[in-house]
Every structure is written in C-alpha cells, then in structure tokens.
Amino acid sequence: MSLQRIVQHETLDHLPEGDPRAMRSRQDLQRINRVMGSKLIMLHALRQADISPPKRILELGAGDGTLMLALAQSLVPKWPKVHLGLLDRQHLVSPQTMHAFQRLGWQAEAIQQDVLDWSVQPYDEGWDLIVANLFIHHFEGDALTRILGAISSRSRAFVACEPRRSKFALSGSRMVGLLGANDVTREDAVLSVQAGFCKRELSSLWPHRYRSWNLRECEAGLFSHCFIAVRAERH
C-alpha cells in the first residue's frame, strides 16, 4: 500500500535568496542530486523520450541552473545551439553558470517568474522540450492541473524527475543529515518525499483532450520517480 500524498510548504521556497540557511540548503541540494543520480536519471529519461534534437528547452523550477548545466555538457554533442529558458521564482543563476552555457554554444535566459503566472501568460512560441527536476511535487489540486495543462499546450515533450513516495525513500530522506545537510534541507527532504509521486499518478492527471500523447511513468534509481510525455506524431 502506497503512502498517502501530502503536500506542505517547504522552508527553502519561502526563504529570501540571500538567507545563509537558504544558500547552504541549495548547496545541500546539489549534493543530494549527485547522491540520487539525478543527472544520469534525467539523461536516461531523455533518451527514452526519443525526440528530435530540440532547439528550445525550458526548465521549470531551475534553481541555480547547475543540474541543467551538467545535462547540457553531456547533451551538447547531439543537441547543439539550444535556446534555454531557466524559469524560477527567484533569481539564482550565477553569471558563471550563464557564461558556462554560453561556452557550450547554448543561449541561456534566466526567467524570473512564478510558474503559476507562467501557466496563464499568453505566449507566441512554444518549447520543443520542457523539463523539471524535483519541482512538480510542490503542487497539488487545481494548481498542478493548471501547470500540466500549460506544459501540454506549450511543448512537444515533457520530462520530469520527482521524489518517489515510498517507505524506503521516506527512510532515506530522514538520513540526509549524514550528508551534512542543514536543518532546512533535513526538514524539506521529508516533506518532498511525502509530496512525491508513485505508480501512474501523473499520467492520470495529464490532459488528453486536445492532442494524443505517449506517456511513460516509472521508478528510477533508489529514490526517484520519472514521468515522460511525448506528443504523438501525426501521419
């Protein structure tokens, strides 16, 4: 029997950008992503998506952009000259990270905006690919439905790597202090797993009304849950 999904506000999301506890927690998240194998999981998911090389990619909840940079460094041989949008409510991407994208030949743009505002904002051009890492689990109910609806109408493919909601993952989340994580990260790690996904929960929420999509949802690694949506080609 799976754990009941519970979404609560995480402390990091409500701390000012320059708060020392927030800065330390973002460093913790880089370490946690490495332990979870988030880069390799995302790369595998992108291979499973089997899409044409995208020219426009958007990351939702991009944070400091370092995970996307690590992905770009692996993807650039096959995906050159990408226009990349890094959307986050806070401005966290450093000039060094922006320059690193530029050196790869990717044109990166930091977009400071709340995702719920983004989901209702008019747009002229969509995205070939939208990605999210440890972000979609922050939402539930109408907000989650609205975000998924906006993604489906503005992209050809969507790949998300989220916390897996399981007893094993919950036990693991209670041990992040062993990695040197601070109090913010220790509390938020547990909340993230409780708000995570399992089985085909995201597939059941994905809008199907206007376009056909190929969906894949599965466990990944020890603690992650992957969701892949690719718009079906019309012949």
Q: Can you tell me about this structure?
A:
- By secondary structure, the chain is α/β, with parallel strands linked by helices.
- The protein has one domain: Rossmann fold.
- 40% of the residues lie in helices and 19% in strands.
- It has helices at residues 20-36, 38-49, 66-75, 95-104, 115-120, 141-154, 167-173, 183-194, 201-205; strands at 56-60, 83-88, 107-112, 129-133, 157-163, 213-220, 224-231.
- A 7-stranded mixed beta sheet has the order 3-2-1-4-5-7-6.
- The radius of gyration is 17 Å and the shape is globular.
- The chain starts with 19 loop residues before the first helix and ends with a strand.
- The model has no long low-confidence stretch (mean pLDDT 95).
Summarize the SSE layout with pairings.
Layout: H1 20-36, H2 38-49, E1 56-60, H3 66-75, E2 83-88, H4 95-104, E3 107-112, H5 115-120, E4 129-133, H6 141-154, E5 157-163, H7 167-173, H8 183-194, H9 201-205, E6 213-220, E7 224-231
Parallel strand pairs: 1-2, 1-4, 2-3, 4-5
Antiparallel strand pairs: 5-7, 6-7
Helix pairs in contact: 2-3, 3-4
Short description:
This protein is α/β, with parallel strands linked by helices and 235 residues long. It has helices at 20-36, 38-49, 66-75, 95-104, 115-120, 141-154, 167-173, 183-194, 201-205; strands at residues 56-60, 83-88, 107-112, 129-133, 157-163, 213-220, 224-231.
